[in-house]
Amino acid sequence: MPLTPAPVEPITPDPVRQVPHTLLTQSWLDLTFLHWAADPVDVAPLLPAGTAPDTHDGLTYIGLVAFRMYRAGWFRMPGIPYLGTFPETNVRLYSVDRHGRRGVVFRSLEASRLLPVAIARSAFRLPYAWARMAIHRDVDTVSYTSSRRWPGPRGARCRIAVHIGERIEEPTALEHFLTARWGMHNAFFGQPVYLPNTHPRWPLHRAELLHFEDELVTAAGLPSPAGPPVSVLYSPGVPVRFGRPARPGGLPTP
């Protein structure tokens, strides 16, 4: 069914809405963002019902984002040191719903802690996978490795290494489009869900891709990237809060 036209929220480096009720807290550290342009027609079938590809100058994007999850926790309680801290790598698409809310759609999320993977798969219906992972930082170089354990395809790998460049004082419109995403679209028992988030403005750096091997994008049902990424960015990270699923289009809440 075609989406009903609605005003689409602006692309801004600062949060577009308040998140008064905290569901989850976490920090995302040592992030590398790799992006490839894609035809919206090709990715539309992979998005949840009620959403469409979000576009910038007629194109949408496939993102591969590697980082360190730090102290994930519930509500406003202190984050968990061990179980809440682990490497993560996700494959994501960019979405907009009929209410004009922009977000991301995760096609896969690798994490190195089995218990958080099991909780995210069962409680949030997110496509998390348990993987053997590592992150190494050496002055201005950071590398990420991942090999999937469960579920399949077992052994799906990703290896990324980047050189961190200068701080970006004025990110481009595309760089804001790819990073300043204030919510997540998902499906929960067949119903659309929108989970809002908020965090400070991204500190972004230019980055040079030194090494790249990947099987996660194709394992997520997407075509293998053709050529080098059109955008390579690094960020030291931000603290993040997720709110309760938003209405309309969210889970029923009290």
Automatic annotation (TrEMBL):
Pfam families recorded: DUF2071 (PF09844)
InterPro entries reported for this sequence: ADC_dom_sf, DUF2071
Native organism taxonomy: Bacteria, Bacillati, Actinomycetota, Actinomycetes, Kitasatosporales
Protein name: DUF2071 domain-containing protein
